[in-house]
Structure prediction request, 84 residues.
Amino acid sequence: MEATKTTFYITIVGAGKLIGAGLATIGSAGAGVGIGVIFAGLIHGLSRNPHFVDLLFRYAILGFALTEAMGLLAIMMAFLILNR
Prediction:
């Protein structure tokens, strides 16, 4: 009887880990959408005022780096959940 409880517990914990890791990767989809919005804003801004190319490009690269970092943190969290 004790072995059945242990097997059931291991199964439930394993399923919970997989569900949690799947939910943690939702952040990478958000990062992809965020990067698209950033570069769409860059193209829109450049079409309105092409004289600010350098400034807008710097802001776009900074936004890209921060958004990508959040996506990578989401994937790292998923791996940490699976590792425990």
Residues 23 and 78 are 8 Å apart (CA to CA).
